[in-house]
Write a structure and sequence with these properties.
Length: about 290
């Protein structure tokens, strides 16, 4: 398996944005972006996550991203969720040839009245489909379903969890019940907290536009410099405050331009790009934040 992770270090995982130009994916921009953030401290890339607009991509697009990501980074997690089980299974199998660190999936979403038994069956079917380790991507705000620690334990074959949840106790419960699995938090506002409580790392969209700051938080936590870690975390919170009202997932493309200085294209509707006035507003907010980083 490519790039065995060091188990002692907390991982910084970037859910990488998917760059579009004229509705088509720009794979070169994608690979270049990955190389840049890996150079700046990102350990693992998460392909076709939420920030990567995964649920709005075709299976062929996801495969192309996986291939490009695998050529640009040693450690890759591939998000395979689909409301068509056949497609999720196909993607999970496809991932094997790239020696991915894991395949991940949110539970079957949209449909509100799916039972825990049915959710468990979905994950077991995915486990059976691939030799790659399976991670749960738990994101109740997006999927309407919370797959908590007791259910993960009962499912039995899940080897890691990425919990996008601002309640850190919820994330810690996976670690408490299953110390042997990898447990990550996915909230940009909890990078410092996740590292301080000894999770296995974070999966944060901020790693797209401020990989240096996320990396500096990890170093500060390791050095016991709580003041520095908290100060950097709060600067990231300021970026969130400025960008969320504009539509965060579209804003991330602008934030990469503003903080990293290169063009990674734009999102694809229905995730509409920011308008000119919104870009100006965001740029003004970022200028003020940059002075303090
Ligand atoms: C987080 C989202 C969550 C990162 C992914 C991620 O994009 O796949 O605004 O906290 O709901 O899940 O960035 O964003 P918020 O893992």
């Amino acid at each position: 398996m490519a790039g065995q992770p060091s188990r002692s270090r907390m991982d910084i995982i970037a859910p990488v944005i998917t760059p579009f130009r004229g509705g088509r994916i720009d794979l070169e921009a994608y690979a270049d972006h990955i190389k840049n953030i890996v150079r700046k401290g990102v350990d693992v890339v998460f392909v076709a996550g939420t920030t990567g607009l995964g649920p709005a991509l075709t299976a062929e697009e996801k495969k192309a991203l996986l291939e490009a990501a695998s050529s640009a980074a040693k450690r890759v997690i591939f998000h395979v969720a689909s409301l068509r089980l056949e497609e999720a299974v196909e993607l999970a199998k496809y991932a094997e040839r790239f020696g991915v660190e894991a395949v991940a999936s949110v539970p079957p979403y949209y449909f509100p009245r799916i039972s825990e038994r049915q959710i468990a069956r979905y994950f077991r079917d995915l486990c059976a489909a691939t030799s790659a380790p399976l991670y749960l991507y738990n994101y109740p705000a997006a999927t309407g379903k919370d797959v908590g620690a007791p259910l993960v334990k009962e499912i039995g074959c899940i080897r890691g969890v990425k919990d996008t949840n601002e309640e850190i106790a919820h994330t810690l419960a996976y670690k408490r019940l299953m110390p042997e699995i990898r447990v990550y938090n996915g909230a940009d506002s909890l990078i410092f907290a996740s590292m301080a409580v000894g999770l296995d790392g974070v999966v944060v969209s901020a790693a797209n536009y401020l990989p240096e700051a996320v990396s500096a938080i990890r170093e500060a936590v390791a050095a016991g410099d709580v003041d520095k870690a908290r100060r950097l975390q709060f600067l990231i919170n300021e970026v969130l405050d400025a960008s969320r009202p504009l539509g965060y997932f579209a804003a991330v493309y602008e934030l990469v331009k503003l903080f990293q200085g290169y063009d990674v294209g734009e999102p694809r509707p229905p995730i509409y790009p920011l308008e000119a006035a919104e870009r100006t507003k965001l740029a003004a907010a970022v200028e003020k934040i940059k002075e303090r980083i």
